[in-house]
Amino acid sequence: MSALTEVFRETDRPLLMPYAVGGYPDLRSCLEILRTYLASGADIIELGIPFSDPLADGPVIQAASQVALDQGVKPAQVLDLAGQIAREGGKMVLLSYLNVILAMGTNEFFGRCRDNQVLGVVIPDLPVEEAGDLQNLAKTRGVDLILLAAPTSTDARLARIAGAASGFIYCVSTTGVTGARTSLQAGLPEFVARIRRHTDLPLAVGFGVSSVDQAATVATYADGVIIGSALVQMLRPDEPLETGLQRVGSFLKEAEEAIGAAGTGRAGGAVAKN
Predict the structure, then answer these.
(1) What is the pTM of this model?
(2) Is 20:256 a contact under the CB 8 Å cutoff?
(3) Catalytic residue among 43, 57, 144, 223
(4) Which domains are present in the chain?
(5) Is 144 among the residues known to form the active site?
(6) Catalytic residue selected from 10, 26, 46, 257
(7) Angle between helices 106-115 and 75-87 (to 10 degrees)
(8) How does pLDDT run across 128-137, given as a tens digit for each residue?
């Protein structure tokens, strides 16, 4: 069992998994954002590497990524941010598009992941059919390559994803791109249940989870709750960083409490105890 899966096993409630854009609004401020996530109850932090064509991301994360790119933020610097937070006790997962990894070189990228204590990497534009070689390479560095599953997937495809997955499975809550939404998609519990029939790995739900109430709802059937665009929106460029950090910290503490109340005793039972 991987170190990332073990993080889920260590608690009897679903995990709070906030997302940040690496280097947004700048490298120093991003480090403080990640520290705020950690201090506010984050169990796993997902850190995105900025990319010029983020096909899975909506306007909020696209805009934040562009700000970081305009400042010259490099993938190596985002990896260093992850390493800094890992040394401070955070459990880190990266999100990167495939071209970023290929441009750095796959050996170099996953070697840097290992050196910076990154537990897993989500690659939104890498389908399961093409993931095998990178999965094997990542595994040699002690890193899980996280596969995504979508509501449109057939049961046969979900079985294939589940059979190849490690760490956890990223359950995309809706069709389309990332972004805050006013409601969760109907049928989401059934979608998660479909995946669970094929695997004992933890299942984390992301894309569109935007409020404390939504996070609590997801916690009743998932092992992890990923919150991204809603948090990035709270960090407004027209106000002091400290104001945004206070807003983010309050939101995450409330979300952690709600997730715990909704899911205590359930998530630990859903994850295999091999």
Answers:
(1) 0.92
(2) no
(3) 57
(4) 3-270 (3.20.20.70)
(5) no
(6) 46
(7) 20
(8) 999 999 999 9
